[in-house]
Design goal:
single chain; 5 helices; alpha/beta; globular; Rossmann fold; 126 residues; 45% helix; five-stranded parallel β-sheet
């Protein structure tokens, strides 16, 4: 499947190094419109200003974590912005909670470009 490399993507993480890593992987995959936010509040503000095709968000952030960001995105945006959660945790209860809240997919750290591409292809094909 061909990815829409012009799709706007928002990367949300409070750890600058992780943002750089994800941005680098997305660039490697050919994506050109990549924005970033340092936390969930900043992400919500950006989501109100621009239509993103995909949000890639860390789970553990303050003051608004990835789960709360996901819930608020689902509550505020009827367009069903695609949402991939990134975390170091892979506990079943967390995965199920994220699914119930409307996450499109889940990536466990560490991951590479191939994994990221596969997850994006999966959520964008839906």
């Amino acid at each position: 499947m061909a990815l829409d490399v012009n799709m706007p993507i928002l990367v949300v993480d409070d750890y600058r190094t992780m943002i750089r890593i994800v941005r680098g992987l997305l660039t490697q995959l050919g994506f050109t419109d990549v924005d970033e936010a340092a936390n969930g509040e900043e992400a919500l503000a950006k989501l109100r200003e621009k239509d993103y095709g995909l949000v890639i968000s860390d789970w553990n952030m303050e003051p608004v974590n990835g789960m709360e960001l996901l819930r608020r995105v689902r509550a505020e945006r009827a367009d069903k912005t695609r949402f991939i959660m990134v975390t170091a945790e892979s506990k079943t209860d967390q995965v199920l909670a994220a699914r119930r809240a409307g996450v499109d997919n889940y990536i466990v750290k560490p991951f590479n470009a191939q994994t990221l591409r596969a997850k994006i292809e999966t959520v964008c094909a839906a």
